[in-house]
Structure formats: structure tokens, C-alpha cells
Backbone:
């Protein structure tokens, strides 16, 4: 995934930050435990958020302990203990990483291609392990990736292009939460979250895709070329991103969340809009 | 029954003013207008009912302080009976069966019926209903285009106009759950009022762009 889904830190309360951090560190440790230390470099904000949402719907919040790690050898960080939600997020991280690397192998520049090829060795091994642990999620992710390839080959419209990612996120959220009470809400929420992530990526890559001639839903729908005003195009894309935010917030308001409501509301009302702004104004890549 | 104060998200020793403020905030959040044509509209209505009940209970418990009687009237009349999802009320509909399918949440079925209509017979209502189907599916771009076509073909229909205006509001970040505009402007420290103006101008263009029917 892409790391777009994260809270807006300056507006988090201290305890909210610690709670978020504990899931982040918990997922990182889970990745290390399940897929060796290499996997820990592929920790993403998006999946941290997935784990946090899943945890927040459960009866009991997971125990938190203080743990050291390579990036914090002296001051231990609060870390939630390994649990079903972090396990699932870690497995998904490995499944998604595999497809991301394969994608890089096709699209990226030469140094990136070489890096992707080397990492693919590790990733193939990790993916096999993850497939055994999460057969259903693995199947849905594979299907979504195939649908994505097909959609891009057929140069479909904006909605159809974003559909596979939307559906994939909806399904992953449902599997992760296995919460029948909130199924309809989670499904709509997940759909728009996936759609938002896909359209964010498309907005972010607009210039690059137009130069390289790769498929981009906005470029395709609005017949953009290198002479077009891409700044205006990104502003236009913002309307689609805004509507996703609206739908996510409308769905989230109905969800019976038990913990971490503050962090998640912060993400939806501040974090994502902020991220969206940086992508539309093209300051995101520099930040990264 | 659940604790009414918990429903309103306040402590039981909150002042009457705080109760009222909490209630207003929740009403704004779960207002049926925020969930028009949304497949989750029924859940929002339920939530609204719960909030109204909790508020009425608290007001009654407190012996009508803080304008209880007027407010119970307000809540009963206003929000419990949602007028928003009503496709059924449309008069002289050629697609009554499609409307009832959409209302029942049978989106796939409604779409295949609409797809089967020959292009020559696709009138304003067809486009409006197709837009509604697309919106429920999450295909916002198609929904927008269809609502636009509906308004172009029948500029005086308030139902179509409202659907289009609502969706452009959401796309411009002016919906009930305000979008990115405010936040990002604060971050950048840029000229906020200026951006609001351009935003409004954009919204106005979107509303007024077709067949002369402004908002």
C-alpha cells in the first residue's frame, strides 16, 4: 500500500498518540516475528490503521507492554502484544508487498527494478507463508490485482479503475474485523477507503504516468497529455477524493467503536485531508 | 434501555446548556440529509431515533428545564420521520419498479433493468435513477454525470436538481461532514477566505452549469 492513511500528529492528544504508536510498534514486532526482521522494513501506515480499526471494534483492547527495538534501543516504546488483528495486518502486508514489487519490476526505473528483483526473493517466500495463513484474504487480493490489471489494460473510466481496490479494502476489512453487527458499514467504509487510496495514488502519479505513457485513470478520462495543465487536473481530482472522505466519515459515524475513536476521527477529519492536500499541491513526495 | 447520557456522550451532571449543545451536535451529524440515497440511511435514522429518545428522556427527567416541551416537539416533528430516502413519492414515474428495487437495496437488479432500456427511451428519470444506482455502488463519477444529464433533460425537476447539488457539495468538501478544505488551509496558513470563495464559485459553476437552472 502507499502510506496515505495516517493521523495528523500535531492534533493528536498524547494518550491518542501513544495508543496509535502501540499498534504501530505492535504490528512492526508482529512482522518481525512472523516474517523475519526484513519484513519490518515494510511496515505501512495503511495496515497499521486497518489493525487499529479492527482492534477498536473488539470487546477488549489488547495488552500493551514496553519494548525496545532497533530504532529505539534506549527508550522502550509502548507496544501492543501480538494479536489476531496485527497478525492479519502483517499477513496482508506481505501479500500486498509481493504485488507492489512485481509492479515495480515492470514500471520503475532500473535501480528500482534491481532492488525489486532482489527483494522479490524474500517476498516470494513471505507471500507463500502468508497465503497459507490467510487463504481467503490471499485469494481476494490476487483477484483484485487481476481485476486491476484487466481494468488498466482496457483503459476503463475512473470509477471502474478504482473499483478493484475499493472492493479489496472492503473485503479485507470484513475479514479482519469479522464483525457481523457492523458488516454493511464496514463494507461501505472499506470501499471508499480503497477508492480513496487508489485515486490518491493516481493523483500522485499523474505527471509521471503522463510522461511514461502508463495508464492513469484521470489522464485517460480527461484526455490529458504533457501539454495539459496538470495542476488544474489535480485540483479536479480533488473533488473525487473529497467525496470519498465524505462517505468514509458518514459510514464511520455509524460504527460502534469501543476504543481509539479519537485517533480515527483525527485521521478521517484531519489526517486524510492533510495528506490529500499535500498530494494535490505536490508537496507529498518531498515530505516522504 | 441504555443510559441516555451515554447516548448523548455527556456526563449526567452536565448543565442543561451542555445537554442541548451535545444534542444539537449529534443531530447535525446524523441528520437524514447527510445520508440521502446512502445505503446506510436506515442505520442513521435508527441512530437519530435513539438520540431523540435519549434527549427527550433527559429533558423529561430534568422537569422540562431548557425548553423541554418545545424541543420534544422539534424532535418529533423533524427527524424521526425521514423524508429523504423517499423515491416512492414521485408522481407519474415510468420506472416505479426500479425505484422500489433501489429502495429495497437491490442495486444490481435495478442496474440490469436500467441497462436493458434502449438508449432512445432513456429520459431524465432514467438518468436520475442510474445516477442513484451508481452513487450507491460508490461510482461517484458516473453518478455525477448521470445526475447532470437528468438535470439537463429536465431542468425544472427539484428531485434531480437536489441530487446533483448534494453530490457537488460533497465533492467540494461542503457536505455535512466537511471535507478537506478547512483543515488543509489551516495547515498551509494560506488565505482561507479566498479559498472558500473559489470553492463557492466552483460549487456555483457546478450548480449553474446546466440548462440555466441555478441553485
Residues:
Amino acid at each position: 500500500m502507499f502510506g496515505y492513511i495516517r493521523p495528523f500528529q500535531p492534533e493528536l492528544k498524547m494518550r491518542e498518540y501513544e495508543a496509535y504508536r502501540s499498534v504501530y510498534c505492535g504490528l512492526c514486532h508482529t512482522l518481525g516475528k512472523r516474517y523475519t526482521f526484513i519484513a519490518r522494513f515494510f511496515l505501512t501506515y495503511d495496515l497499521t490503521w486497518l489493525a487499529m480499526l479492527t482492534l477498536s471494534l473488539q470487546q477488549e483492547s489488547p495488552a500493551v507492554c514496553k519494548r525496545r527495538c532497533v530504532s529505539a534501543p534506549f527508550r522502550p516504546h509502548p507496544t501492543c502484544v501480538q494479536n489476531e488483528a496485527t497478525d492479519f495486518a502483517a499477513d496482508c502486508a506481505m501479500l500486498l508487498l509481493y504485488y507492489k514489487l512485481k509492479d515495480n519490476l515492470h514500471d520503475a526505473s532500473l535501480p528500482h527494478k534491481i532492488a525489486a528483483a532482489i527483494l522479490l526473493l524474500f517476498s516470494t517466500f513471505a507471500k507463500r507463508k502468508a497465503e497459507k495463513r490467510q487463504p481467503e484474504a490471499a485469494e481476494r487480493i490476487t483477484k483484485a490485482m487481476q481485476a486491476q490489471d484487466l481494468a488498466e489494460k482496457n483503459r476503463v473510466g475512473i470509477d471502474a479503475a478504482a473499483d478493484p481496490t475499493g472492493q479489496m479494502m472492503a473485503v479485507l476489512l470484513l475479514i479482519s474485523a469479522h464483525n457481523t453487527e457492523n458488516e454493511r458499514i464496514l463494507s461501505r467504509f472499506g470501499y471508499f477507503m480503497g477508492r480513496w487510496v487508489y485515486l490518491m495514488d493516481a493523483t500522485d502519479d499523474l505527471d509521471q504516468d503522463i510522461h511514461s505513457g502508463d495508464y492513469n485513470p484521470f489522464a485517460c478520462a480527461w484526455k490529458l497529455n504533457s501539454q495539459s495543465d496538470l495542476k488544474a487536473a489535480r485540483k479536479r481530482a480533488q473533488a473525487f477524493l473529497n467525496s470519498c472522505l465524505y462517505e468514509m466519515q458518514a459510514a464511520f459515524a455509524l460504527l460502534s467503536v469501543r476504543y481509539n475513536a479519537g485517533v480515527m476521527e483525527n485521521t478521517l477529519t484531519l489526517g486524510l485531508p492533510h495528506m490529500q492536500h499535500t498530494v494535490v499541491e505536490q508537496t507529498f513526495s518531498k515530505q516522504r | 434501555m441504555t443510559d441516555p447520557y451515554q447516548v448523548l456522550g455527556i456526563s449526567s451532571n452536565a448543565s442543561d446548556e451542555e445537554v442541548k449543545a451535545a444534542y444539537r451536535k449529534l443531530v447535525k451529524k446524523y441528520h437524514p440529509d447527510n445520508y440521502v440515497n446512502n445505503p446506510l440511511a436506515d442505520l442513521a435514522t435508527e441512530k437519530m431515533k435513539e438520540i431523540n429518545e435519549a434527549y427527550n428522556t433527559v429533558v423529561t427527567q430534568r422537569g422540562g428545564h431548557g425548553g423541554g416541551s418545545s424541543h420534544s416537539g422539534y424532535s418529533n416533528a423533524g427527524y424521526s420521520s425521514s423524508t429523504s430516502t423517499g423515491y416512492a413519492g414521485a408522481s407519474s414515474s415510468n420506472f416505479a419498479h426500479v425505484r422500489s428495487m433501489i429502495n429495497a437495496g437491490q442495486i444490481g437488479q435495478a442496474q440490469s433493468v436500467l441497462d436493458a432500456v434502449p438508449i432512445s427511451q432513456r429520459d431524465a428519470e432514467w438518468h436520475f435513477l442510474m445516477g442513484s444506482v451508481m452513487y450507491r455502488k460508490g461510482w461517484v463519477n458516473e453518478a455525477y454525470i448521470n445526475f447532470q444529464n437528468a438535470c439537463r433533460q429536465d431542468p425544472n425537476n427539484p428531485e434531480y436538481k437536489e441530487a446533483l447539488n448534494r453530490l457537488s457539495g460533497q465533492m467540494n468538501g461542503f457536505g455535512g461532514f466537511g471535507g478537506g478544505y478547512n483543515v488543509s488551509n489551516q495547515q498551509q496558513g494560506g488565505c482561507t477566505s479566498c479559498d472558500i470563495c473559489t470553492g463557492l464559485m466552483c460549487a456555483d459553476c457546478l450548480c449553474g452549469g446546466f440548462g440555466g437552472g441555478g441553485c
User: Anything to note?
Assistant: Chain B is about 65% helix and 0% strand.
